[in-house]
Write a structure and sequence with these properties.
The longest helix is centred in the first third of the chain and has 18 residues. The strands form two sheets. A six-stranded antiparallel β-sheet has the order 1-6-4-8-3-2. The protein has nine helices and eight strands. It has one domain: q2cbj1_9rhob like domain (Jelly Rolls, Sandwich), CATH 2.60.120.620. 25% of the residues lie in helices and 16% in strands. The chain is an alpha+beta fold. The relative contact order is 0.20.
Length: 277
């Protein structure tokens, strides 16, 4: 858990620069366990190449469905320190939007173009307040030699036109933090960022955990992608992040139709949660 002072410092960094870094956020042993399990899943489930596809056409492997594949990943989206900062940045009732492993290939020549993660959300930039954040869990070293994430400080305050202006002086002001396993890079969805070439002989692995404010539809449809029978086994906080709750107490999370009492003068009763029993 973070102190209030630490939360405020991370919040201020995201507001000013568009990103912050949580050092020593998880143990090296967890990083090793994540890497081992992701590589096993890649081995067992990787989609074969199509007739017109070549291995060199892709620069990384993305592993989705982690919440269904192993309990090892259940407490990643609900990390207390990350959620403390997100509660300050996004406000209460934020939701999990996407969750996947990203394994950048070694000796890869394809640099990822700078981009924001909010381009599909129809809200004019710059946003009055952030509408989403991504937590990149560093599982293997992120740096210039491994294709670590590049970020353009302050770009979350700029319009989307920056992508198309080809202002090389501005786009060239990216930085590439040197991040060790156990670190979490937390950034505003509006921040321009991207992976770089990985000239090393090692794969570069991170866990991408993205969140949205409660009034924005998550990119992943959790209600269709995870059967309710499996959701019942999840911890309550994880179920909340998937959307099994009301937004600011408005509406209903009850699975059964019916009526309820409401008053402008009386104290409102808490809406029942979706029945998962």
């Amino acid at each position: 858990m973070l102190s209030e002072t630490e939360v405020q410092a991370h919040h201020a960094a995201i507001s000013e620069d568009g990103f912050t870094i949580l050092e020593n956020a998880f143990e090296p042993e967890r990083a090793e366990a994540f890497a081992k399990r992701i590589r096993e899943i890649e081995r067992d489930t990787l989609r074969p190449l199509g007739p017109d596809e070549k291995e060199e056409d892709s620069s990384f492997f993305r592993t989705a469905g982690l919440l269904r594949l192993d309990r090892l990943f259940w407490d990643v989206p609900t990390d207390p320190a990350v959620c403390q900062v997100l509660d300050a940045v996004l406000g209460p009732d934020f939701l999990l939007s996407t969750f996947s492993g990203i394994d950048l290939k070694p000796s890869g020549p394809t640099v990822q173009p700078l981009h924001p993660d909010d381009a599909l959300v129809g809200v004019p930039r710059p946003h009055a307040t952030p509408i989403g954040c991504t937590a990149m869990w560093v599982v293997t070293p992120f740096n210039e030699g491994t294709g670590g994430t590049r970020v353009l400080p302050g770009s979350h305050k700029e319009p989307l036109d920056l992508l198309f202006s080809q202002d090389q002086e501005r786009l060239g002001q990216t930085i590439q933090p040197d991040l060790q396993p156990g670190t979490i890079l937390l950034f505003d969805h509006a921040l321009f960022h991207g992976a770089s070439d990985n000239p090393s002989d090692d794969w570069r692995l991170g866990l991408q955990v993205s969140y949205h404010v409660g009034w924005v539809r998550p990119y992943t449809n959790w209600f269709r992608s995870i059967p309710i029978e499996e959701v019942r086994a999840f911890p309550e906080k994880l179920r909340d992040l998937l959307g099994y709750k009301t937004y600011h107490g408005i509406g209903t999370a009850n699975a059964e139709p019916g009526s309820y009492r409401e008053s402008y003068t009386g104290r409102a009763a808490r809406d029942p949660r979706l029945s998962l029993e």
